[in-house]
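ENCODED BACKBONE
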Amino acid sequence: MPWKERSLMSLRQEFVAFALNVKRSISLQALCDRFKISPKTGYKWVTRYRAEGDKGLQNRTRRPHHSPSKTAEAMEGAVLRVRDEHLAWGGRKIRKSLLQEGLERVPAPSTITEILRRHDRLNPEEASKHKAWQRFVHEAPNRLWQMDFKGHFGLESGGRCHPLTLVDDHSRFALGVRACGDEQERTVQRELKGIFRDYGLPEAMIMDNGAPWGHYPDRFTKLSVWLIRLGIHVSHSRGGHPQTHGKNERFNRTLKVELLQSGIFHDLEHCQEAFDRWRDVYNLKRPHEALGMKTPAECYQPSSRSFPEVLEPIEYGPEDMIRKVQYNGEIHYRGQTFVIGYAFHGHPVALRATTEDGVWDVYFCQQKISTVNLKGS
């Protein structure tokens, strides 16, 4: 975990959120290893947080601690301060944020909304929220990650930024918001390696149908092949069905409203600094209504499947018929030629008989990638 690249406070908050989750999927020792800290340091932050909350994660000072009582005027000022820091937050999120700060007698969400209205902080469209999609939610973290590029934008120094976003389906935890200079496969693979090292591997990933995820006539790219070799099931969203990729699309809209549409960015480094700050707020501070007003970090756990620096050889079962994919993406079997896909060039695939006569499923590693019919269509 890159402790030097992000603020120590946000990393401590993320660590204790994972450590105190009753559904923790990895040991505290393994979690400390992911964050590159000693178990002694890990136990220290957990103990301090249990005793004092977020205040316990701050560096110790010699100044005396005090908690002066808040007047109604001061509370209104706190409400407006949070709203000005997070222009897209409504009453529920602001209330949860103030409670996290340790403030007492925080007003109800409806009262906070009235405060915002009196001080002209409400946007007209906030009066009528649209209904959210009814979406399937995976029952545990890392069952499915959703990945996409948020629309690119120009930079003051020249060039463009292509934000790569990655969200856990179960917890809405933002695994990464990466400032990329292009949308090439090698760029995505480089960024994913860092994310996999930090959070482990998911069981499955879903992405769009355009480059670099998959494109006509092939559903799979070199990037897909690499992910499948890591033991990740790869799927693509269906055109005209935004709910299949909806959490990432919703996340991208939030990113646009809360950061991108009001920001001017000089270069990719400037973008990444802003992305990291916003991601910490999104994961650690911003309550999510679909999570019962919990934060994504409270509902997420790193995967127990660590990223392998070296890929294992591809192996199949003794009953499988093995064929090597040729340079043109084809395989040959029983005197016939079948198109599998250019991305699999040089790799072995396995043919497995189905219950239907003459029909064989084609597998690459653990994933079914095609079906061939020896009798023709």
